[in-house]
Amino acid sequence: MTANVDTRLAPRQRLARGLKYSTVGPVDVTRGVVGLTADTVSATAAGLRKRYESGKLRRQIAAAAATVAALPEVLQEAAAAPQPKRRRRRLVIAGVAVAVLAGGAVTFSILRRSARPEPSPLPPSVEVSPKP
């Protein structure tokens, strides 16, 4: 793989290349994800700016402020209502997180083992110590 300095990769291309090649993979995956995140944040900020300038966002902010003003009453009503079982949901989320981490560890272990060549049980085909 040759590196061409003149060609700049887009974040999506960098992410794809990072997932494809194992030698520069972690660096390219990280740079690709950071680039995609930066592009997303930039596009979101531009969209918010356009919506604010059009007045739509101002109305939404005013509605959100009214909702926040009514928040203490809503919280008192919610505190009086019976609470659902949240412990089960937390346990399920924790179980899924543990399963994902375990799956990643197993995948990493399998890929790491497959990258290492196994030693050959056969004797070398060339004489190890050459004769003068």
Structural summary, described in words:
This protein folds into two domains: 8-83, no CATH class; 84-115. It is built from five helices and no strands. It has helices spanning 11-20, 25-54, 56-69, 71-80, 87-115. Helix 1 (11-20) runs antiparallel to helix 2. The longest helix has 30 residues, at 25-54. The two termini are 39 Å apart. The model has no long low-confidence stretch (mean pLDDT 79).
Key features?
mainly alpha, 132 residues, cell membrane, single chain, elongated, 5 helices, cell shape, CwsA, membrane, transmembrane helix, 2 domains
Largest sheet: none
| Low confidence ranges | none
Percentage beta strand = under 5%
Percent of residues in helical segments? over 70%
- Number of helical regions: 5
Number of strands: 0
Summarize the structure in short.
Belongs to the CwsA family. The protein has 132 residues and is an all-alpha fold. The chain has two domains: 8-83, no CATH class; 84-115.
